[in-house]
Amino acid sequence: MRIDDILALVASREATLAVQPTEGDGTPEIAWGDTFFYYAPNGSMPEATQPFATIVTKDYPGDTDCRLDRPDAFRLNVAVGTEEFRACLGYGPRESNPTPQPVRDDTVIAHPTYASAGWVAVVNPGPATEYAVGELLHRAYVRAVAAHDRKAARKQ
């Protein structure tokens, strides 16, 4: 899978917004070139809401195990929640991985930084994870819609 494939997959969902920070838009330089996906029924950046998925194209400080400094390397990060995290990895987001392994491309892994919040990741998704990526993004999108609806109901 390429980044464009993921962009198209997410864009096929109703009311999604892909935010791609660039130089000069007021975002921190570290975010330039990355993509942040939101459920945004009004078409604008939601306030006080985390993205339901992201694509990062470089190593961040303290987050270098995925080796995103390689040419064309990227990582898809998906907020799946506790149940889906456990279904994918066999342990809960706040539990230690019982069989830690080095990060490999095209494999669903616990997010190196946000696993405890129910995030999984795939470095350089490919044939082995293509179906899983679609399912993970769908579930994260459904969770984002539900969170938006709960928040809207509380405001009424």
Automatic annotation (TrEMBL):
Residue intervals of the DUF6194 domain: 1-152
Domain of life: Bacteria
Pfam families xrefs: DUF6194
Protein name from the UniProt record: DUF6194 domain-containing protein
Species: Nocardia callitridis
